[in-house]
């Protein structure tokens, strides 16, 4: 069988079934991803956060989350109450975490909440903030 007759057979098949060959859509490879704009405040926080985070990881080399996927070695910092406002820099709300556990928390929200690694809401936190507006530092 030659290439040509194979082609004709396919064409015939398409005519009979009415199924058109699927053309692959060209994807816009050069699509530009928008540049994330951080607020001035967050930029300042990031400057403060980097050394805090580094020191925290150094002082806590072992992951504290211990999810079923845990790799034991601290690779990052998990923020129990999220990275909102001053919690972002609050060491008491940080937990040393391996990347696997960080991902596990993201993908297993229920598990994280049940084990106290994720707060279900921020409302209770707001009242706490007012009580302890003067930080220990
Ligand atoms: Zn872990």
Tally of alpha and pi helices: 5
- Please give the alpha-carbon distance between the first and last residues: 82 Å
- The helical percent reads 40-55%
Return the structural class.
mainly alpha
Radius of gyration: 26 Å
Please, what is the oligomeric state?
Answer: single chain
Ligand species: zinc ion
| Residue fraction in strands | 5-15%
Low-confidence stretches: 132-137
Largest beta sheet, briefly? Answer: 2 strands, antiparallel
Please tally the β strands and state the result: 2
Order of helices and strands: HHEEHHH
Mean pLDDT across the residues is: 80
Q: What is the topology, as strand order, of the major beta sheet?
A: 1-2
Shape, principal axes of CA atoms: elongated
Q: How would you characterize this protein structure?
A:
- The protein is mainly α and 137 residues long.
- The chain has a domain at 40-114.
- It has helices spanning 3-17, 40-59, 99-107, 109-114, 123-131; strands at residues 76-79, 94-97.
- Strands 1-2 form a two-stranded antiparallel ribbon.
- The longest helix is centred in the middle third of the chain and has 20 residues, at 40-59.
- The protein is elongated and about 70 Å long.
- The termini are far apart.
- Mean pLDDT is 80; it is low at 132-137.
- Residues 63, 65-67, 70-71, 97-98, 100-101 line the site of zinc ion.
Question: What topology does this entry show?
Answer:
Layout: H1 3-17, H2 40-59, E1 76-79, E2 94-97, H3 99-107, H4 109-114, H5 123-131
The protein binds zinc ion.
List keywords for this structure.
single chain, 137 residues, mainly alpha, two-stranded antiparallel ribbon, 5 helices, 6% strand, disordered C terminus, binds zinc ion
């Amino acid at each position: 069988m030659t290439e040509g007759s194979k082609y004709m057979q396919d064409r015939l098949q398409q005519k009979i079934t009415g199924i058109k060959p699927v053309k692959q859509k060209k994807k816009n490879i050069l699509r530009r991803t928008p540049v994330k704009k951080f607020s001035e405040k967050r930029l300042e926080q990031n400057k403060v956060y980097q050394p805090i985070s580094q020191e925290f990881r150094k002082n806590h080399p072992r992951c504290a989350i211990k999810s079923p996927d845990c790799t034991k070695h601290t690779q990052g910092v998990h923020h129990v109450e999220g990275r909102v406002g001053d919690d972002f820099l609050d060491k008491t709300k940080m937990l040393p975490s391996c990347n696997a556990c960080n991902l596990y928390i993201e993908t297993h929200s229920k598990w994280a909440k049940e084990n106290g690694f994720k707060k279900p809401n921020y409302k209770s936190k707001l009242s706490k903030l007012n009580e302890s507006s003067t930080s220990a530092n």
